[in-house]
Amino acid sequence: GQQVMQIPQYQHVQEGEDFTTYCNSSTTLSNIQWYKQRPGGHPVFLIQLVKSGEVKKQKRLTFQFGEAKKNSSLHITATQTTDVGTYFCAPRENNRLAFGKGNQVVVIP
Amino acid sequence: DTEVTQTPKHLVMGMTNKKSLKCEQHMGHRAMYWYKQKAKKPPELMFVYSYEKLSINESVPSRFSPECPNSSLLNLHLHALQPEDSALYLCASSQDSGRNTGELFFGEGSRLTVL
Fold it and tell me: Is A39 on the interface with B (CB under 8 A)?
Protein backbone atom coordinates (compact mmCIF):
# COMPACT_ATOMS: atom_id res chain seq x y z
CA GLY A 1 0.00 0.00 0.00
CA GLN A 2 0.88 3.64 -0.25
CA GLN A 3 3.54 4.58 2.29
CA VAL A 4 3.61 8.08 3.69
CA MET A 5 5.78 9.48 6.42
CA GLN A 6 4.37 12.01 8.85
CA ILE A 7 6.72 14.43 10.53
CA PRO A 8 6.89 14.98 13.41
CA GLN A 9 5.15 12.12 15.19
CA TYR A 10 4.76 14.16 18.37
CA GLN A 11 4.50 17.89 19.06
CA HIS A 12 4.06 19.93 22.19
CA VAL A 13 2.71 23.33 21.22
CA GLN A 14 2.23 26.35 23.43
CA GLU A 15 -1.27 27.76 23.29
CA GLY A 16 -1.32 30.73 20.94
CA GLU A 17 1.63 29.58 18.85
CA ASP A 18 1.59 28.16 15.32
CA PHE A 19 2.65 24.71 14.20
CA THR A 20 2.94 22.65 11.05
CA THR A 21 2.71 18.94 10.41
CA TYR A 22 4.02 17.29 7.26
CA CYS A 23 3.15 14.27 5.19
CA ASN A 24 5.70 12.97 2.68
CA SER A 25 5.52 10.28 0.04
CA SER A 26 8.19 8.78 -2.21
CA THR A 27 5.62 8.39 -4.98
CA THR A 28 3.07 10.66 -6.60
CA LEU A 29 -0.28 10.70 -4.85
CA SER A 30 -3.59 10.96 -6.68
CA ASN A 31 -5.17 12.71 -3.72
CA ILE A 32 -4.78 13.01 0.01
CA GLN A 33 -7.15 13.47 2.90
CA TRP A 34 -6.50 14.77 6.40
CA TYR A 35 -8.28 13.56 9.55
CA LYS A 36 -8.18 14.60 13.18
CA GLN A 37 -8.74 12.20 16.05
CA ARG A 38 -9.26 13.61 19.51
CA PRO A 39 -8.10 11.54 22.50
CA GLY A 40 -10.68 8.80 23.03
CA GLY A 41 -12.51 9.79 19.86
CA HIS A 42 -12.84 8.67 16.28
CA PRO A 43 -11.23 10.11 13.13
CA VAL A 44 -13.01 13.13 11.73
CA PHE A 45 -12.49 14.30 8.17
CA LEU A 46 -10.83 17.69 7.72
CA ILE A 47 -10.05 18.12 4.03
CA GLN A 48 -9.32 16.46 0.73
CA LEU A 49 -6.63 17.76 -1.65
CA VAL A 50 -6.56 16.69 -5.26
CA LYS A 51 -4.80 19.25 -7.42
CA SER A 52 -1.09 19.92 -7.69
CA GLY A 53 -0.13 22.95 -5.59
CA GLU A 54 -3.60 23.17 -4.05
CA VAL A 55 -4.02 25.33 -0.94
CA LYS A 56 -7.17 25.22 1.15
CA LYS A 57 -7.98 27.18 4.28
CA GLN A 58 -10.41 26.46 7.09
CA LYS A 59 -10.28 29.30 9.61
CA ARG A 60 -6.94 28.78 11.42
CA LEU A 61 -6.03 25.68 9.38
CA THR A 62 -4.17 25.84 6.07
CA PHE A 63 -3.69 22.71 3.98
CA GLN A 64 -1.25 22.42 1.09
CA PHE A 65 -0.61 19.81 -1.57
CA GLY A 66 2.84 19.94 -3.12
CA GLU A 67 3.44 20.78 -6.75
CA ALA A 68 4.72 17.26 -7.39
CA LYS A 69 1.84 15.77 -5.36
CA LYS A 70 4.33 13.93 -3.17
CA ASN A 71 3.86 15.91 0.00
CA SER A 72 1.25 17.74 1.96
CA SER A 73 1.17 19.92 5.02
CA LEU A 74 -1.22 21.23 7.62
CA HIS A 75 -0.44 24.54 9.30
CA ILE A 76 -2.41 25.72 12.33
CA THR A 77 -2.14 29.27 13.61
CA ALA A 78 -2.90 30.60 17.11
CA THR A 79 -3.19 27.12 18.59
CA GLN A 80 -6.07 26.52 20.96
CA THR A 81 -6.57 23.78 23.52
CA THR A 82 -9.24 22.32 21.24
CA ASP A 83 -6.53 21.57 18.66
CA VAL A 84 -5.25 18.72 20.82
CA GLY A 85 -5.36 15.36 19.08
CA THR A 86 -3.70 13.27 16.42
CA TYR A 87 -3.64 14.51 12.86
CA PHE A 88 -3.50 11.84 10.17
CA CYS A 89 -2.82 12.24 6.50
CA ALA A 90 -4.41 9.53 4.38
CA PRO A 91 -3.63 9.05 0.71
CA ARG A 92 -6.12 7.20 -1.40
CA GLU A 93 -4.73 4.39 -3.54
CA ASN A 94 -6.59 1.61 -5.35
CA ASN A 95 -9.83 2.38 -3.52
CA ARG A 96 -8.03 2.13 -0.20
CA LEU A 97 -7.64 4.95 2.27
CA ALA A 98 -4.44 4.20 4.20
CA PHE A 99 -3.54 6.33 7.20
CA GLY A 100 -0.10 7.65 8.00
CA LYS A 101 1.22 7.11 11.51
CA GLY A 102 -0.12 10.47 12.62
CA ASN A 103 1.16 13.52 14.43
CA GLN A 104 0.08 13.59 18.06
CA VAL A 105 -0.30 17.18 19.23
CA VAL A 106 -0.34 18.20 22.87
CA VAL A 107 -1.29 21.79 23.64
CA ILE A 108 0.32 23.46 26.63
CA PRO A 109 -1.99 26.06 28.21
CA ASP B 1 -22.34 13.67 16.55
CA THR B 2 -21.61 10.92 14.06
CA GLU B 3 -24.11 9.66 11.50
CA VAL B 4 -22.54 6.22 11.61
CA THR B 5 -23.78 4.23 14.58
CA GLN B 6 -21.81 1.35 16.04
CA THR B 7 -22.93 -1.15 18.67
CA PRO B 8 -21.87 -2.20 21.16
CA LYS B 9 -19.55 0.58 22.34
CA HIS B 10 -17.67 -1.86 24.54
CA LEU B 11 -17.37 -5.63 24.31
CA VAL B 12 -15.48 -8.10 26.46
CA MET B 13 -15.29 -11.65 25.20
CA GLY B 14 -13.44 -14.86 25.83
CA MET B 15 -11.40 -16.63 23.20
CA THR B 16 -14.11 -19.25 22.68
CA ASN B 17 -17.00 -16.82 22.35
CA LYS B 18 -18.86 -15.78 19.22
CA LYS B 19 -19.95 -12.17 19.06
CA SER B 20 -20.82 -9.55 16.46
CA LEU B 21 -20.15 -5.87 15.98
CA LYS B 22 -22.80 -3.86 14.18
CA CYS B 23 -22.68 -0.69 12.15
CA GLU B 24 -25.48 1.33 10.60
CA GLN B 25 -25.64 4.42 8.40
CA HIS B 26 -28.60 6.17 6.82
CA MET B 27 -26.78 8.61 4.57
CA GLY B 28 -27.35 6.54 1.44
CA HIS B 29 -23.66 5.75 1.22
CA ARG B 30 -22.72 2.80 -0.97
CA ALA B 31 -19.33 2.00 0.52
CA MET B 32 -18.70 0.78 4.05
CA TYR B 33 -15.46 -0.06 5.81
CA TRP B 34 -14.07 -1.83 8.84
CA TYR B 35 -10.86 -0.50 10.39
CA LYS B 36 -8.92 -1.80 13.38
CA GLN B 37 -7.05 0.63 15.61
CA LYS B 38 -4.63 -0.29 18.37
CA ALA B 39 -3.64 2.25 21.00
CA LYS B 40 -1.35 5.02 19.73
CA LYS B 41 -1.50 3.57 16.20
CA PRO B 42 -3.29 4.66 13.03
CA PRO B 43 -6.47 2.92 11.85
CA GLU B 44 -5.69 -0.14 9.71
CA LEU B 45 -8.05 -1.09 6.91
CA MET B 46 -9.64 -4.55 7.24
CA PHE B 47 -12.53 -4.74 4.77
CA VAL B 48 -14.30 -2.62 2.18
CA TYR B 49 -17.83 -3.23 0.92
CA SER B 50 -18.99 -1.51 -2.21
CA TYR B 51 -22.64 -1.79 -3.23
CA GLU B 52 -23.08 -4.54 -0.65
CA LYS B 53 -20.29 -6.66 -2.11
CA LEU B 54 -16.95 -7.31 -0.48
CA SER B 55 -14.40 -5.49 -2.62
CA ILE B 56 -11.33 -5.47 -0.40
CA ASN B 57 -10.11 -7.92 2.26
CA GLU B 58 -6.73 -6.87 3.58
CA SER B 59 -5.65 -10.45 4.35
CA VAL B 60 -7.64 -10.46 7.56
CA PRO B 61 -7.70 -13.75 9.51
CA SER B 62 -10.85 -15.81 9.03
CA ARG B 63 -11.78 -15.42 12.69
CA PHE B 64 -13.10 -12.04 11.52
CA SER B 65 -16.06 -12.45 9.18
CA PRO B 66 -17.73 -9.40 7.66
CA GLU B 67 -21.30 -9.28 6.44
CA CYS B 68 -23.30 -6.61 4.65
CA PRO B 69 -27.01 -7.52 4.91
CA ASN B 70 -28.08 -4.36 3.07
CA SER B 71 -26.73 -1.01 2.01
CA SER B 72 -27.25 0.52 5.46
CA LEU B 73 -25.86 -2.25 7.64
CA LEU B 74 -22.44 -3.75 8.16
CA ASN B 75 -21.59 -6.48 10.63
CA LEU B 76 -18.34 -7.97 11.81
CA HIS B 77 -18.68 -11.49 13.20
CA LEU B 78 -16.04 -12.52 15.70
CA HIS B 79 -15.10 -16.09 16.58
CA ALA B 80 -12.16 -17.65 18.38
CA LEU B 81 -10.35 -14.35 18.78
CA GLN B 82 -6.98 -13.91 20.41
CA PRO B 83 -6.01 -11.40 23.12
CA GLU B 84 -3.95 -9.49 20.53
CA ASP B 85 -7.19 -8.80 18.65
CA SER B 86 -8.18 -6.41 21.44
CA ALA B 87 -8.54 -3.01 19.80
CA LEU B 88 -10.94 -0.28 18.76
CA TYR B 89 -12.93 -1.41 15.73
CA LEU B 90 -14.07 1.49 13.60
CA CYS B 91 -16.78 1.39 10.98
CA ALA B 92 -16.87 4.04 8.28
CA SER B 93 -18.92 4.87 5.23
CA SER B 94 -18.48 6.98 2.12
CA GLN B 95 -20.65 7.92 -0.79
CA ASP B 96 -18.74 5.55 -3.02
CA SER B 97 -15.47 3.65 -2.97
CA GLY B 98 -14.11 4.73 -6.31
CA ARG B 99 -11.14 6.90 -7.14
CA ASN B 100 -12.91 10.15 -6.42
CA THR B 101 -14.54 9.11 -3.18
CA GLY B 102 -14.91 11.96 -0.75
CA GLU B 103 -14.69 11.82 2.96
CA LEU B 104 -15.10 8.84 5.18
CA PHE B 105 -17.59 9.18 8.01
CA PHE B 106 -16.47 7.18 11.02
CA GLY B 107 -18.54 5.77 13.83
CA GLU B 108 -17.42 6.14 17.41
CA GLY B 109 -16.05 2.61 17.39
CA SER B 110 -16.50 -0.58 19.34
CA ARG B 111 -13.79 -1.17 21.91
CA LEU B 112 -13.12 -4.89 22.06
CA THR B 113 -11.27 -6.70 24.83
CA VAL B 114 -10.46 -10.39 24.36
CA LEU B 115 -9.61 -12.25 27.54
Answer: no
- Average pLDDT of every residue of chain A: 95
State the nearest Cα–Cα gap between B88 and chain A, in angstroms.
9
Q: Compute the Cα dihedral for A94, B107, B25, B21 and give only its sign.
A: positive
On whether any CB of chain A is under 8 Å from the CB of B106, the answer is: yes
Q: How far apart are CA B83 and CA B88, in angstroms?
A: 13
Residues B80-114: tens digit of each pLDDT: 999 999 999 999 999 987 766 789 999 999 999 99
Could you say which DSSP state residue A95 is in?
T
Q: What is the pLDDT confidence band of residue A92, given thresholds at 50, 70 and 90?
A: confident
Nearest to B56 among A41, A44, A95 (CB): A95
pLDDT at B87: 98
Dist CA A26 CA A6 (whole Å): 12
Which residue, among A42, A63, A103, A104, would best test binding to B if mutated, counting the most B CBs under 10 Å from its CB? A42
B38 φ/ψ angles, rounded to the nearest 5 degrees: -90, 160
Selected residues 12-31 of chain A with any CB under 8 Å from a CB in chain B? 30-31
pLDDT at A1: 47
